[in-house]
Each structure stands twice: as C-alpha cells, then as structure tokens.
Amino acid sequence: MKLTLKVWRQKNSNSEGKLVAYDLDGISPDSSFLEMLDILNETLIERGEEPVAFDHDCREGICGMCSLVINGIPHGHERQTTVCQLHMRHFKDGQTVTIEPWRSKPLPVIKDLIVDRTALEKIQQAGGFVSISTGGVPDANATPIPKQVADVAMDAAACIGCGACVAACKNASAMLFMSAKVSQLNRLPQGKVEKDRRVLAMVKTHDELGFGNCTNFGECQAVCPKGITLDHIAKLNRDYAVASFKNIFGGVK
Amino acid sequence: MKLNSKIPSGPIQDKWDNHKFSIKLVNPANKRKYNIIVVGSGLAGGSAAASLGELGYNVKCFCYQDSPRRAHSIAAQGGINAAKNYPNDGDSIYRLFYDTVKGGDFRAREANVYRLAQVSNNIIDQCVAQGVPFAREYGGLLDNRSFGGAQVSRTFYARGQTGQQLLLGAYSALNRQIAAGTVQMYNRHEMLDLVVEDGRAVGIIVRDMVTGEVERHAADAVLLGTGGYANAYFLSTNAAGCNVTAAYRAYLKGAGFANPCYTQIHPTCIPVHGDQQSKLTLMSESLRNDGRVWVPKSKTISEKIINGQMHPSEVAEEDRDYYLERKYPSFGNLAPRDISSRSAKEACDDGRGIAHNAGHNGVFLDFAASIDRLGQPKIEERYGNLFEMYERITGENAYKTPMQIYPALHYTMGGLWVDYNLMTTIPGCYALGECNFSDHGANRLGASALMQGLADGYFVIPFTLADYLAGTVGLANAGRTATDTEAFNEAEDAVKSKTNKLLSVNGKQTARSFHKKLGQIMWEYAGMARNEEGLKKAIELIPQLREEFWSDVRVPGENGELNQELERAGRVADFLEFGELLCRDALDRKESCGGHFREESQTEEGEAKRDDENFCNASVWEYKGPKEAPVKHTEELTFEYCKLAVRSYK
Ligand code: FES
Fold it and tell me: Which atom of ligand 1 is nearest to the CA of A82?
C-alpha cells in the first residue's frame, strides 16, 4: 500500500508544531497502524531525519498508552479499537492520513504525538481506590455481590485510561474516564462505604485541573475503545448530587 | 558468589510461619526512617510499593511508561490461581503446591512454591476488598474455572482481562499511597544502573525520559520488579518496551542470574503475518477448552489451503491430524504449554503448516465441532471478545474459518537468583515477580504469573525486607540519601558514557534492525527446540552482531530530550549481551526440562527427558567482566515432598 501521511511534528512542549507530509510505500495491509509508523520511522532514520515520537507499549489494546488522532478521530475510525489494534486493511491504497496527538489543554503535548497525561493520574489519586491496606481483609466470599452488579462494575472497570474521551470532547471533559472508576467502585459493597467522599474528591480534582464540564454530546462514548457508556456518567452525576446534598449539611468527611 | 537459599527449617507447612516469627521487624514508628526504591510498577512492583507505603516506609517507585497502570501485567488475560477450593473439587494448598512443582518440571524450590500456594488465598481476599470485579455466579459468590489443563477449578478471572483488573487494583492501592505521600512516583523514568557500595545495593541511576536528565537516587534497599526478558527474541507477546536492562545491570553489578534458558513459548498466539510485524498477540489459552487443534495429514492439502484452493472446512475428517488428541489422549487439546508448542512446531517442520507466512508456521484451532454441539451463541458467550480480537487483527471470522495459531515467546521463568527472602546475591537488592527465578521452575502453569507477582509484592516482601533493614542496615544508618559518593559517580559516568557512545557511532543501521536480527538468531537457535550445534552457532553469531551494532548503529537526536531511539538502542545493547548468556545457559544444560528442550535429550517418543542426576539444580551465572566468560554456580534442588517423577500427560 501507498500512503501520504501528514504527521504532527513538535520538538517539545515549548515549541510550535506543524503538520509535515511524508510519502510511504510498501505497507502491508496486514500491518497494524503502529507497524506502519515503525516503518515510517525506520525510513526517516535511514534518511538522517528524526523519527516521529509516539506513545505505545502493549500493542494489544489494553495498556492505554497509544494515543493518536487519525483523520480527526481519536484512535481512528474503527469503533472500539485502539490505534494499536487498528490495521492497515481499513485504509485505502493511496489515501492521505492525518496523524495528530490528543488535543486538549489539560493534556499538553510533550513531543510530536506524545502528550502528558499526568492530570488523569491526579484524578485517580484523588479517590480512585478503596481505603484498605494489605492484609486483614475478610474472606473473598464473605460478601456476595449480585452478578448483575459485578458485571456492570466490570463494564466500567474495563477503561484503559488512554484519554481518548478527553481528546474527543470539545469541553476537554474527563467525565467518562472519571465516571468509569466511580461507577465501578461506588456500586460494589467494598467501595460503597466511601462513595460520597470519593465522588466529591475526584470531581473537585477534575475541575481544578482544568477539565471542562460534560454537556452530553456523547463524543467520548463514540470514541471509547472499550465501549464505556454514558450510563456511567449518569451514575457519577447521581452520586455527586447525593454527596453534595449531604455535604451541605456537613455529612461528608 | 555464595548461594545461601535461606530456606527455613521445619516441615514445609510451617516454614513460612516460623520464618515470619524468627526474622527481625521494623518498629512501626521507625519505618518512615527507611528509604526504599521500587523499580517497575506491574503486579510485583506496584503491589510492593503500595504495601510498603502503607506500612509507612518512604518509597520511590519508577516506571518507564507514563503511568504505573500501563505495566505489562495488564495484558494477562486468563486468570489467577488460588487454593480456595470454593468449588469443593478437591483442591488444597498442598495440591496447588504439588501441581506447580510438577508443572515446573521439578526445577523450582519447594519451599518457595509452598509459600506461594499458601498466600494465594490472601491474594484473592485482598483483590476483592480492593473492588476487583471478578466473575461471579448468580448466587453472588465468585466463579472459578479450570485453566491450562488443571484438574481442579481454581482459577479466578475477570472476563478476559484478569491481569488488567488485578493491576488496576494494585494501581489503586498505589494511588492511595501517592496521595498520602508515602510513595513518590516517577513515571517516564528508566533505570539504567544499580549502585552498589561496600557490597550493598544503595541506589539506582535513572534517566528522565522526557528531559534526558540522568538522576541519582539513593535508598536503603532496591527492589526490582522489572519483568522478564522475552523481548530478547524481538517478536514476543511482551509489550514493546519490556526489556532486560534493569535485571541485566544488576547482574553486571554482581547479582547472580539464574536459569536464563527457561523461556516459555505459548501455544496459542496469532501467527506472524510478515516481516513488518512488531509484536505477537496471544489468544487466551482458555480457547483450547472448546477448540480442536489440527493440521492436514498431507502436505498437498496444506498447500492447497495456503494457496486458497481449498477451504479448511472442506478437508475431510480422515485427512485431518488432530495431533494433540492423537499423541496425548488423556489431556488432548489441553496438554501443557511446552508440549503443545513443540507439537505445533513439529507439524509445521513436517511441512504441514497452514499459515500464509514464510515458513507456513501456523496450525488450526477449530471451533466447528463445539459450535455444532453447543451452538454459536454459547461459543460467543464464552469467547466473544477473543473472536473479535482475532478478527480485528487478522480480518477473519473464526466462527466460519478455523483460527490459525502458532507458538510465540510469552514468559520467562529464569531471572535474578533470589533467596527465600527474595534477595539477590547483592545484599539490599531484591527481585520480585517475573524478574526473579524462584517459583515456576522450568515451566510456568497458566494463571500462575499473576499469583506470583502479587504474592511477592503484597505478602512476601513486606515481611522479608524488614529483616534486612532492621538487621543489616540498622536504625543508625537508616534513610540513606547521600549520592555524592564514588560508587554513584562511577555508575553515573558509566551510564553517560554508554549514552554518548550510542549517540556517536552514527552508523547506518537502526537499533530496531539489530533487535530483529538478534531475534532471528534467538528464535532459530534458542527457540522451541535447541541443540548443541545451534547454540554454539548462536554464541558465535551474537558477539559478531554486537560488534556490528557498536560500529554501525545509528541513533538520531540528542540525549537532552525525549529520544525513543536512544531508549531503544540502550535496551537492544543489553539484549545483545544478555542473549548470549541465555544461549550459554541453554548449551550448558544438556537435559530437557519444561520449556527448555534439548534435542539430544528426548525419549523415544520425542518427549523431554530430564537428567536428574546431573541437573537437579538451578544454574546461577556470575558476571566476571567484559572479556571473561561468566562462571556458573549451582543451587542443588531437593524434593522432599514432591517425588521426582516423569511429567507425563499421555
Ligand atoms: S499500545 Fe497498549 S493500548 Fe495501544
């Protein structure tokens, strides 16, 4: 396959970036998108140019490291597919493909296609856990959990933390990302105990970090490679409303 | 090098309890005075960092990804074993212990494996308490399945994403400690050397991968949870960034490296598609519960299938060779990983492979019979996500056309030698999880990697580390921060000069192309089957390749910036040395055992033949210098509880 790539090149976080065009030939339709970029990089190095920096690791759609906007869509046009799992057979021979980094204020570009996702970490650190330490916990079967509850918690827990939802949102909201953790933990008996303080702390941090509000466009759900749905945002909103209400009366410590 | 395994005395059931009682403790108020470094944030490193932080230690944790949640433990699909015996089917700690020792082909240390089985139950309790959404029955209790040929159902799972869920559990515990200030997290930092002073590990040298700055970090103890070395083979199921650098650097600084030749090749991966391939993808082994493995009986039919003249479903029953069912009637398609992998290779070497790649290396995993018997919806319910993943990668619908699979490098059982306390031969330097050699012997059973990583991090190191801190380091010297010493200077200089050297060769070939060439040598001569001649050849070829690397590699860019090629080149340089060590070990171990198959040592039926007389031991390699050959030491293994027996799955 032959392709024309337009790739975002940016030396570092302080410099201006621009799209640079590259022609590439001999790509196998069985290659993955990242394998195609590997080949681009090999060619660039051989020509004495700097390769394109991009994040990736597992290359099997689970670590959440890969993060490219392809022709304007985070992770590209295939539904529920991370870019590392996207294969070249879904592109046309001779096609022009634009490759950009996540674009969102709270996730600034570090270099080329790599962004800084520290802000997502901070949201998790604010409350994405159950406050128990190692040891001294009850037997795993001590608390039965209805299968439906466990299944929905698992749906939410499938989030890979890539940040595509933020990149897709015109408000740069991380609500889908945050709701996945809140929805998982707040519905399980183990996490329910501190559900109010969790949701308050996470939302507060989310807002402080400059992520925007959710205005229900659903772009996040459309690009989520793991099929996390808006239902979890609804759950987050409900839990947040309840917690805020209790908080007015000083109930949440 | 002295190998003192420090196995506690007493009956195996009591060893761990006795040990916990007899080792030293650090008083709760004094814990915050000690500084601990944890390298790696996967199941082993992440759970260790979190648990030590909870106890009050001052922890610094390092990972090369942009978040600790991305460590490659996340990709484990199948499940985690524990001896809970919830299904009431005869499981016990003793049985899990026995199965693990036997599965490892009697090349693991009994005492360690027993402890692993003991704490396996705590792990499940811990994970559930963290909110890990394991699969459940309608009654609300945890569901178990049988996995990887086990005769009992002891595997807990969270859909096909067990590793992800367990890692996110450890990650959440880690986040809690980061927020509490007991753990300082260093993302996008790569460890490039271990600092050893007066014979003890006192810190590490890291490179900030964003700024290129080389930093020194001191501590009272250094814990490595840096994973395995499967990427020495270039193509493996490991993540692209997985590397041996941290462990190899520790080896260069005096840590013994045990059994590097024990590698696990997983039978159910998607075959190579061509030479643009960058990694291989594993399909969960659970597929073998309902899929039948076969190749055509004749080469002619194989050729027709490859050329598209015949659809696999058109091959008549009598023209198919269900080779696992034929050779291992009682285990059939569920034969252990090493055996299944070798059989696939045999079939393909025989010219009956059916994949489109160069060697036609691929066999069928066929669900047609199960679909007939159970209906497609049942198969969809069981494996829907795997079939989807398969289609995403190959573009083929496995409900209609049988899947193609082929073995690939997946896990490495060898690693840094550790004693019962998980300490390497360098005092103060510990190795946890896949990074150490201790629990899986020569072959790891399915769903045991997650168990070991978490056992080491949650339930072993928090106790055993205290012994060293309270005993050897001592309160008077606790809280090391000094980095202005000769040992740190030397280590930092060495790191910087290696970096400069890499950047200054300015040759013609990319680091990646060298990695690929190394991978070809490794797979060819130290892959599924090994022999003396081939291994000797590899030991000749690798140094040549290494020389070529250092005279012709091209690393663009500079040090003082984010430079992925520089990162890669540094890792490849270490693989180019480590690969040779692996081959030397494979050459030295003349027996076959588990994942290590020496063609010279097989039974008449072509099964692995152990040599307990000469090799009932762990080989531990000591680095002797750049021009010297490494020296082998051995730790003799004794089997008091599991009788040495031929591992038969007929
Ligand atoms: S590289 Fe891991 S999800 Fe894409």
Answer: 4
